[in-house]
Amino acid sequence: MKLISSRMALAGASAVLSAAVVFAPVAHGEEVGSVNTNFHITGSDRVVVEAYDDPLVQGVTCYVSRARTGGVKGTLGIAEDPTEASIACRQVGAIHFTGPLKQQADVFSVSMSLIFKALHVVRVVDTKRNALVYLTYSDRVVSGSAKNSVSAVPMPAATTIPLK
């Protein structure tokens, strides 16, 4: 009986995560550089740096570095990338909000495996310090990772962050 309940719970969790991945904001990153870390004849493992522009805050770009698996599985897109990632977000132009922001919201989500693993970037508004805080972490159906990275972008003195 416990085995059946566990399988049903796992199936339910899988369905919820699959739906969350489908409805999470899709990241449209631009690869700005990479380095090879492990040579394979069929394609090397590497660390890539990708730039993601915040869709609701013009003038803010987040740079995410993460490992990408090479080889045959990596080439076919079926490899599971490691969970390690780092983030640095910066003001790269004049700040303009395209609408009000939630206190905390997923900004980007990038698949790290065929179905069950994703890298997320969450934006948190720190109203007391007039800053935007960006957190990156990964999750998967059965067990996520506590590995994370955080970056903050202070707003110019005259800028007020519009909240929902």
From TrEMBL:
One GO term of the cellular component aspect? cytosol
The family database entries (PANTHER family) matched by this protein are listed as: PROTEIN CREA, PTHR37952
One Pfam family this chain carries?
Answer: CreA
Q: What is this protein called?
A: CREA signal peptide protein
Task: List the signal peptide residues.
Answer: 1-29
Keyword line: Signal
Q: Does the keyword Cell division apply?
A: no
Looking up InterPro entries in the UniProt record yields: Uncharacterised_CreA
